[in-house]
Amino acid sequence: MPADSLKQAQEMLTQGRIDVFATNKGILFEMVEGLQGVKILDGRWGVENLFMAFQKTGPAREASLEFLRRFGAELQANGELLAMIKRAGLKGVAAND
Q1: Taking a C-beta distance cutoff of 8 angstroms, is the pair 76, 96 a contact?
Q2: Which residues are within 8 A (CB) of 44 and not within 5 positions of it... i.e. 6 or more apart?
Q3: Alpha carbon distance 35, 28 (integer Å)
């Protein structure tokens, strides 16, 4: 059963018109604030990836790609990525996949 908006889905849940609703975890955590008897299940049904862009061709491409790989790996390895997630108050993030 489709919902035209998150607000409508929230209403459908509270009215018992639907038993479950699926979207990304960040939205789910916001959506269930203030709702009684609602539980967010463990696991996930999908993943939203974030990507960085860099030059498609040319001499700077390889250097850019290597920088982004090192930068991402360093953020994960030193715990800064998780610290950023915590500071932002994000919930349901799969940061190590």
Answers
A1: yes
A2: 25, 92, 94
A3: 11
